[in-house]
Amino acid sequence: MKKEPPYAVASVDNALRLIHMLRDEGELRLTDAADALGIGRSTAHRLLSMLVYRDFARRDETRRTYLPGAALTAGPLPGQTRNQELRRLLMPHLERLCHQVEESVNLMVRVGTHTRFLVTVEAQHVLHVGDRQGTVLPAHHSSGGKALLAELPDSHLAELYRSGPEPVLAQAEFDRLTRDVAQIRRCGHALNLEATEAGICAIGRVVRAKDGDAVAAVTISAPTVRFPARRIETWAKVLAESTARAGRDLPSGLG
């Protein structure tokens, strides 16, 4: 389980978030960086200058933007154009859902045995789940990851988690995952009850494009104190309605 350090250093956290953005977006403007972090442009410029100095970023003087540097072993990850389109098309639905449930809402995709958060719409409560953009979690623990794994045939799950001389999951863990997947296939949503971070729970469901492909997952995440069992059924219904509306805006071929 991941916990925020008790003495978190804001400047370091902001620099790491900039690295996430460079990795996921492939190109970053100074004003966009400042807006995303909620800091002044001069502060964002100093942070980006240090990333350039340490080869995590490089400056394109012609376009006046920042690009991934040599220390990031690759430029934009495969599928980033698709991910950008998902963010663009689904952001209005994420914002509406966040307003409706008054908790943080996330969009994520599966990459092998992991899930990557593409964007977070944060709740307005003082105590809320913060921005997870760029975070990578084990798919078999996160609610969105499990919802996406439930779309795979059992043979594919076994290949992902139990093949090779050093399987990703031990047999007991894999058996637990298959039981979770069976339940998700029956009810349509997945739960994460403090499996990835103490004090935080989430419920997730896939979003299907017009051709029926599950292209991403949307999750509602909240502090455990605001995630009682009686809320799960209500949020599951709201989430199902939201993802159904969102799917109508997703063209075929995104899978």
From TrEMBL:
Keywords: DNA-binding, Transcription, Transcription regulation. GO terms for molecular function: DNA binding; DNA-binding transcription factor activity. Residues 70-255 form the IclR-ED domain. It comes from the Bacteria. GO terms for biological process: negative regulation of DNA-templated transcription. Residues 9-70 form the HTH iclR-type domain. This is IclR family transcriptional regulator.
